[in-house]
């Protein structure tokens, strides 16, 4: 049986169709879902006033719910624009129903925010069956020189930052198989051109906690990179921050810290399982 009820939604009254069972709903939870549903339907981030106007929730109650959702990562708050949008925390907390889905949309959404923290170009690449890497996503810092490659660009298998990120946290047998089919290429005078040097670079990468390429693929260009693992522990993407060599070397620790944090956020959101010894936030 249905009936109508006159309700006070903040500053407006509405006549709603109401199920008798609705009386058993938890108001705060119900309103939080209203907020999430509204934001999810918007093409861009929204303000507090827009949320209040469209949900009818009082300002103080709405703000408290928003603050709670931001705290848990379900929403992202932009302090400059005073806007809210869905956060990746919601994917993390429902990851059990999304593990079989491609993690691309999660990783790429985080990649889009990363240049704001690193002041670099950021490139997301996918390992290709031929051993190389294909660019599938990219983002650039506003007002900075763009150093990137178009989506679809195919990196060779021994692109230094990518190669180190791919091989540094896998089994020794996988590295040996990769090296057995490798023909050294001297892209610059800094390129590794011997198996002994590759092994040394992989060891340094593990000790450092991230792959580092200084003028090894292109003179004047450097990169910091890490792999992204899926729920089965397989590398599905390589994420790297690229910039001019003087800038990368000067801000190496800051860029690496932001990259490690971003990759950790991606892993939490998609249920990724990096191996033991992989760098963790904090």
TrEMBL record:
<dbReference type="InterPro" id="IPR036390">
    <property type="entry name" value="WH_DNA-bd_sf"/>
</dbReference>
<keyword id="KW-0805">Transcription regulation</keyword>
<dbReference type="Pfam" id="PF09339">
    <property type="entry name" value="HTH_IclR"/>
</dbReference>
<dbReference type="InterPro" id="IPR005471">
    <property type="entry name" value="Tscrpt_reg_IclR_N"/>
</dbReference>
<feature type="domain" description="HTH iclR-type">
    <location>
        <begin position="26"/>
        <end position="88"/>
    </location>
</feature>
<dbReference type="InterPro" id="IPR029016">
    <property type="entry name" value="GAF-like_dom_sf"/>
</dbReference>
<dbReference type="Pfam" id="PF01614">
    <property type="entry name" value="IclR_C"/>
</dbReference>
<protein>
    <submittedName>
        <fullName>IclR family transcriptional regulator</fullName>
    </submittedName>
</protein>
<keyword id="KW-0238">DNA-binding</keyword>
<dbReference type="InterPro" id="IPR050707">
    <property type="entry name" value="HTH_MetabolicPath_Reg"/>
</dbReference>
<dbReference type="InterPro" id="IPR014757">
    <property type="entry name" value="Tscrpt_reg_IclR_C"/>
</dbReference>
<keyword id="KW-0804">Transcription</keyword>
<feature type="domain" description="IclR-ED">
    <location>
        <begin position="82"/>
        <end position="272"/>
    </location>
</feature>
<dbReference type="InterPro" id="IPR036388">
    <property type="entry name" value="WH-like_DNA-bd_sf"/>
</dbReference>
